[in-house]
């Protein structure tokens, strides 16, 4: 079941779209807190976003740009502001399609289905893991924190992926070494320490101090 997020401040329109798409077996939610849209997107992990242009606090162009910093999820703009300038702006900000209000719900459903098929027929779901404001994008192996991308090496990414997927749980050094090198044999134990130290320094420079914690004699965790 595909998950769809509606970002529309007209509650009547949002509910109408939700009710209609739900009949087609989509898992649909609509935003009610327009100050914390990205947090809701991270929590829900939609496969498609329906985004209005005129919204409280910040417009849809702003939010599309923010979404694109952490995700490649398809975005369809829905707006009565249908002049060419708004359509061009929507596409330039990362939108995939533009539907003019008022629209036929069946046309909307057809466009949603077509975009989902094009996006996911040859690739898996775009996944992200979030912890304390840090967002690890599994589709392109990048980490974003406070709107800044942190460059990761292959080992950086593998360590963070394992620890963030096991949030709150201690991961042993042996498990991490197995994950990195597919073996805990013939690898100097100090090599893992060097990798962890370098990654911690990189995270601290980005403002993520003490993101990876050590449990002496057990391993590492994020919590």
Automatic annotation (TrEMBL):
<dbReference type="GO" id="GO:0000156">
    <property type="term" value="F:phosphorelay response regulator activity"/>
</dbReference>
<dbReference type="InterPro" id="IPR039420">
    <property type="entry name" value="WalR-like"/>
</dbReference>
<keyword id="KW-0238">DNA-binding</keyword>
<dbReference type="InterPro" id="IPR011006">
    <property type="entry name" value="CheY-like_superfamily"/>
</dbReference>
<dbReference type="GO" id="GO:0000976">
    <property type="term" value="F:transcription cis-regulatory region binding"/>
</dbReference>
<feature type="modified residue" description="4-aspartylphosphate">
    <location>
        <position position="52"/>
    </location>
</feature>
<dbReference type="GO" id="GO:0006355">
    <property type="term" value="P:regulation of DNA-templated transcription"/>
</dbReference>
<feature type="domain" description="Response regulatory">
    <location>
        <begin position="3"/>
        <end position="116"/>
    </location>
</feature>
<dbReference type="GO" id="GO:0005829">
    <property type="term" value="C:cytosol"/>
</dbReference>
<dbReference type="InterPro" id="IPR016032">
    <property type="entry name" value="Sig_transdc_resp-reg_C-effctor"/>
</dbReference>
<keyword id="KW-0804">Transcription</keyword>
<keyword id="KW-0805">Transcription regulation</keyword>
<dbReference type="InterPro" id="IPR001867">
    <property type="entry name" value="OmpR/PhoB-type_DNA-bd"/>
</dbReference>
<protein>
    <recommendedName>
        <fullName>Stage 0 sporulation protein A homolog</fullName>
    </recommendedName>
</protein>
<feature type="DNA-binding region" description="OmpR/PhoB-type">
    <location>
        <begin position="126"/>
        <end position="223"/>
    </location>
</feature>
<dbReference type="Pfam" id="PF00072">
    <property type="entry name" value="Response_reg"/>
</dbReference>
<comment type="function">
    <text>May play the central regulatory role in sporulation. It may be an element of the effector pathway responsible for the activation of sporulation genes in response to nutritional stress. Spo0A may act in concert with spo0H (a sigma factor) to control the expression of some genes that are critical to the sporulation process.</text>
</comment>
<keyword id="KW-0597">Phosphoprotein</keyword>
<dbReference type="InterPro" id="IPR036388">
    <property type="entry name" value="WH-like_DNA-bd_sf"/>
</dbReference>
<dbReference type="InterPro" id="IPR001789">
    <property type="entry name" value="Sig_transdc_resp-reg_receiver"/>
</dbReference>
<feature type="domain" description="OmpR/PhoB-type">
    <location>
        <begin position="126"/>
        <end position="223"/>
    </location>
</feature>
<dbReference type="GO" id="GO:0032993">
    <property type="term" value="C:protein-DNA complex"/>
</dbReference>
<dbReference type="Pfam" id="PF00486">
    <property type="entry name" value="Trans_reg_C"/>
</dbReference>
């Amino acid at each position: 079941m595909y998950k769809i997020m509606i970002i529309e401040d007209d509650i009547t329109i949002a509910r109408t779209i939700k009710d209609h798409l739900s009949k087609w077996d989509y898992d649909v939610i609509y935003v009610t807190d327009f100050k914390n849209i990205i947090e809701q997107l991270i929590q829900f992990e939609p496969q498609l976003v329906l985004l209005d242009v005129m919204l409280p606090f910040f417009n849809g162009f702003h939010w599309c740009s923010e979404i694109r910093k952490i995700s490649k999820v398809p975005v369809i703009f829905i707006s009565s502001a249908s002049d060419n300038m708004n359509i061009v702006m929507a596409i330039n900000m990362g939108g995939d399609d533009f539907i003019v209000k008022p629209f036929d719900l069946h046309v909307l459903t057809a466009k949603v289905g077509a975009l989902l098929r094009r996006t996911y027929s040859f690739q898996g779901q775009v996944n992200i893991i979030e912890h304390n404001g840090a967002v690890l994008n599994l589709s392109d192996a990048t980490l974003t924190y406070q709107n800044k991308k942190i460059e990761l090496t292959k080992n950086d990414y593998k360590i963070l992926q394992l620890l963030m997927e096991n949030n709150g749980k201690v991961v042993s050094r042996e498990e991490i070494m197995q994950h990195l090198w597919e073996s805990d044999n013939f690898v100097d134990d100090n090599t893992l320490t060097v990798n962890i130290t370098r990654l911690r320094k990189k995270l601290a420079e980005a403002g993520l101090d003490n993101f990876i914690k050590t449990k002496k004699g057990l391993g590492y965790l994020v919590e």
